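Two proteins follow. First one:
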Amino acid sequence: MPRSRLFTILALLLITVCFALLSTHFLQKAQETTLSFFSPLFHSGAFVKKQLGGLGKHLMTLDELEAEYHHLLLENKRLHAENDLLRGLEEENIKLRATLNYRERSAFRLLSATVIARDHSVWWNTMKINRGSKDGVAPDMPVITDRGLVGKTTTVTDHLSVVMLVTDEECKVAVKVEGTREQGIANGLRASTGDLELCFLDKLADLKSGQKVYTAGVSGGIFPSGIEVGTVKSFQVRELDGQAILDPAADINNLEDVFVIVGAK
């Protein structure tokens, strides 16, 4: 037998004897060291497995997702509706506060009224309010809002009154122009455009756009002085006088609540 092979066999026998002679305590220590080294990996794997298992429990099916989506849509619509309602209530509250403040500041005794019907035509322009003689209303009483002149009462019953609007051709109002000595008569246009015309002005008046026009409060007249009637839109010279076109101060087309002037404070 070659010498090299003999040495190899002897070495293998020696190693085998050494492993056999190792104590059980030494082998246990080696195993503990190995387990301690790889312990973090074992824990990480278990944690990931646990999390993935929990995630699977909470995953929703497509039907469940669709149902949740529709639920959220309905909830969103409900919240939008509530916001719109609250916004409307807030605007109404602001409007009511402004109206009450105006009534308190006014030099007149004001009776609040609600518009219950409108009547538009080429020949007349009137509305009906829910106040009548039982509330102290009489014919030829001025009707206003906090923005300006609306018109005057005509026919009055116990609990209802007809109001001729300032935009009616037959509603004549003596007025004066802010910042000038110009006075004239304002009334609605026959074409029922919603504008007013101011006639009997001086040809040299040369009114400017934006000037305010107020009731003149002539002796024996229906309308007291100082109520805003409108704003000058344009001015033209005619053969005998000057004429201005006015934009009404009150929002005639959107009247809901008005005041009837029933006297002075």
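Second one, unrelated to the first:
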Amino acid sequence: MLSKADPNLASLLNSSIVDAQNMDGKSHVLLVCEHASNYIPAKYNALGLTTQEIQSHIAWDPGAMKIAGHLVEMLDAPLIAQKVSRLVYDCNRPPNSPDAMRPTSEAYSIPGNQNLTDSEKQTRIAEVYTPFRTALRQTIDQRIKAGFDPIIITIHSFTPTYNGTTRDVEIGILHDSDQRIADAMLKAANGPYDVRRNAPYGPQDGVTHTLTDQAISRGLRNVMIEIRNDLLKSADSQHEIAQWLAALIKAAILNEAAICQE
């Protein structure tokens, strides 16, 4: 088994930080879900938030992990996901980002993230960000050694309104400097969703850290998928969107390969 080849990686994949699934998947796709969980360890005293606030989008990406789980099965792809709320540490942000341990999120204040000392920040980096980043990087290394050409696809969800502004886009196909897979997905996209490039976020919003750090830095193909979370409220709708995305990803990989051969 791939996941057993490196004992250091195996320990990371069995930690309280990293959720790893289907590590022996046969797809070149490697799925990532950095905002999979709203779990806040007890030592952080819920960061001073209410249960309702922790269940809201500020603490995680509702529905994203459900989509990622379906794609694991539909694509036979491995998945690396974060088990801890992004409010403790957002693993899609580098340590020097003000959003890595944000003191506010939209209209919400995060009391437990106010006035963090350098020592407190370094502890969270060491306990959350570094293990997740290392596990993902070592997984990519292991896949390459096994003969795969990893395609990094990160799965996220977003709210239908933000700071009072309605978002019409339903699915965003996001990229940074490498737009190979994004271009192929946008070319292949059809029916029934409003699909747009770099919406509702883009590189200028600091949302492409995983893509740049883990994929672009190594010349690997990559893309980030954002799904409006009101489309993910039922199990049926989650499965339907996952099926559509799986077909789109497969078509995009074929299209991108064909373009490269031209």
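SUMMARY FIELD: The two ends are 36 Å apart (CA to CA). The chain has a mean pLDDT of 94.
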